[in-house]
Design goal:
By secondary structure, the chain is α/β, with parallel strands linked by helices. The protein has 2 domains: 197 residues, Rossmann fold (3-Layer(aba) Sandwich); 171 residues, Rossmann fold, CATH 3.40.50. 44% of the residues lie in helices and 17% in strands. The strands form 2 sheets. The chain has a 7-stranded parallel beta sheet with strand order 3-2-1-4-5-6-7, with helices on both faces.
Length: 392
């Protein structure tokens, strides 16, 4: 890397220059804690520059959102964004004021909206470098799943993503598949990027390193778990096609949905009473529930969104000692499952004979793999490159 650090540009934080990590319209969630606030904290352990989270959030329930974010990142600057997504560009004025106050050397931006604003700060001389933190294929996701049901906004997202990819000084991608997608869709050919998959959150990382042997049910039931939303974009139809033949063929297979109740999972619960369990647990109780299962389910339809993805649940399942059931074409992860015997990769159907209880030895192997590939410390070299590329 040819990026140089200079000491002349100091922000208002004294001896340490400031790098802003900017998020726009992201609400508090487990993903936000593990992929934003934990990342900011980790970056602050690696370099002399101060990385400061600036979060532009919905004015609705603003005080509650602000308290939640600052509980995880006390130094964060949490500000209400201009109401309604249609006026999202107006938030550039807010960011301009923040940059005049903090005098950042660089801005790391989560997503294309934040990156567009940051690029305007660079154009105005209010920041010198911009990094696009690409968490997925944004335009494809909006077009395939209508994240916001507004044709005007959906039409904007592809040129925004193209500008973020082509004009940023540096980029983070969650998968090599995402980098390939940038090349195919936006003719991206630069090497100015790092690939960092979605990593374990700080709480899971620490707990896994000190965890006692896995608790196990004493019967012969094989427990599959699906953790997360069963909304349409999570491909519930594929999940049902997997589970129904399995239930009909194997009486020893049960499934746990760590999800809110909805018509999808309730229909399976009615069809297979006593074998389908639906729970919505506090975050602190999820780890124990996962560790009592044998397989974590991650089946997704073959959309561009899923083909470049790096779902956080993958690392969480592995760190709980679970084998993964997934299908082909899930980001970089399907190949990883096959190469390292981390579970089962489906083609069209799942052979019922391949479903077996996960042994204690395998659980420890899977957990070790997660700690060796999906902690933030493992990716320190990439994070350091990011800091060097974004600082001044």
């Amino acid at each position: 890397m040819g990026w140089a650090r200079h000491g002349a540009d100091r922000g208002c934080f004294g001896a340490r220059a400031v790098i802003i990590y900017l998020t726009y319209n992201d609400q508090p969630s487990g993903v936000y804690w593990s992929q934003v606030t934990d990342v900011v904290e980790h970056l602050n352990t690696l370099g002399r520059d101060s990385v400061k989270l600036v979060a532009l959030v919905s004015a609705r329930d603003f005080l509650r959102t602000r308290r939640a974010i600052k509980a995880h990142s006390p130094s964060a600057l949490v500000l209400p964004m201009v109401p309604t997504m249609k006026r999202w560009k107006w938030n550039t004025t807010i960011l301009g004021g923040v940059c005049r106050l903090l005098k950042p050397g660089g801005i790391i931006c989560r997503g294309p909206f934040a990156t567009w604003m940051a690029l305007r700060m660079r154009d105005r001389g209010l920041a010198k470098r911009v990094c696009f933190d690409g968490r997925g294929a944004y335009a494809a996701e909006w077009e395939e799943y209508r994240i916001i049901d507004d044709d005007t906004l959906i039409a904007q997202i592809r040129p925004l993503e193209q500008e973020a990819v082509s004009k940023s000084d540096f980029r983070i991608a969650v998968s090599n598949a995402l980098v390939a997608h940038w090349g195919e869709r936006y003719s991206y050919k630069s090497s100015e990027h790092v690939v960092i998959p979605c990593t374990l959150g700080r709480d899971l990382d620490r707990n896994r390193r000190s965890e006692l042997p896995f608790p196990r049910a004493e019967n012969d039931v094989i427990r599959l778990v699906y953790s997360g939303s069963t909304a349409g974009w999570q491909s519930f139809d594929l999940l049902e096609k997997l589970l129904v033949p399995l239930f009909d063929s194997r009486a020893d297979v049960h499934v746990l949905f760590l999800s809110k109740r909805d018509p999808h999972n309730e229909s399976l619960e009615r069809k297979y009473p006593g074998r389908v369990e639906i729970k919505w647990l506090d975050h602190a109780r999820v780890q124990l529930a996962l560790s009592e299962c044998d397989y974590g389910i991650m089946v997704r339809e073959r959309t561009i969104t899923n083909q470049v993805a790096s779902p956080t649940k993958f690392a969480e399942y592995l760190s709980s000692g679970l084998r993964i059931i997934t299908n082909e074409g899930l980001g970089d992860l399907s190949a990883l499952v096959q190469e390292h015997d981390l579970g089962l990769v489906l083609t069209d159907t799942l052979s019922v004979a391949t479903i077996q209880k996960t042994t204690a030895a395998d659980r420890h192997r899977l957990r070790a793999f997660a700690l060796n590939h999906f902690t933030k410390q493992i990716h320190n070299t990439s994070y350091s490159l990011l800091l060097s590329a974004t600082s001044t």
